[in-house]
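For the sake of clarity, the format in which proteins appear in this thesis is described at this point. Each number in the token line that follows is a code from a learned vocabulary of backbone shapes. One such record is shown here in full, so that the layout can be seen directly:
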Amino acid sequence: MATYAAVCAGAAACLTVAGDQGVRRARLMPAGGGAVETRPRWGRERWRPVVGRLRREWLCLPVGLLLAVLGESVLPLVAAVVAIPLVGRRLTAMERRRAKEHKADAVIALCGGIAGELRAGRQPGQALLSAGRATGALGGSEAAVLAAARFGGDVPAELRRAGREPGADGLAGLAACWLVSVDSGAGLAAGLDRLEAALRAERDQREALRAQLAGASSTVVVLALLPVVGLGLGWALGADPLRVLLHTPAGLGCLVLGGLLEAAGLFWAVRIVRAGARS
């Protein structure tokens, strides 16, 4: 009887929740028929927005706290607090680089999409509308560019304005092809094919250079981790390297000097890699 009562209570609760959502959906139908927003009450969905707001550079804080507890000193925690903005800047630069590359790939896809639409028999404005929505290469200027294409505005000017965004340099070439085809009647599809080929070649060259520099970048990472390996070897041999580094004058001197040399070495190695990438 108790099990039967529990099952009935659970079924009644489910029907109540479903009925409540049905009433809310029915109330929203006259207002426009939008979907009912369901708010998670428990489980991982409740904490996902909070975790999403936490950036990865804040992981320095628990690492510094752990080292501070193990070494019985506040210095690792202070170093972790100082490292948070530096790591944040590095991660932000990496995210911007990935966004720039993604935008460049979208511009290449836009050129190919417009050329395909033109060969299918569509007008340039219709081709730009279709490919622009599909690829998302126009970014924040998408509304202005598509409006110019739909209502006969200055499409090349809007494309050049959209090309000022990071990674969207190819849109300036698209604007030039568009302007030439309008003024002289040249084939827009042929120009876009050449532009797409040039952008693909530039991307392939950039990826090949990155592959060649991968070994140097790995060497920089290995050199940066050598002090951590040294601390691990010290613990494995039965020593207490954190206590020596954080609680003795000689250890503090070695820590400061080693930190400065580590920073100088990383700066110099990263500068060499970046110089190779620019060349």
Remarks:
- Confidence is low (pLDDT under 50) at residues 1-53.
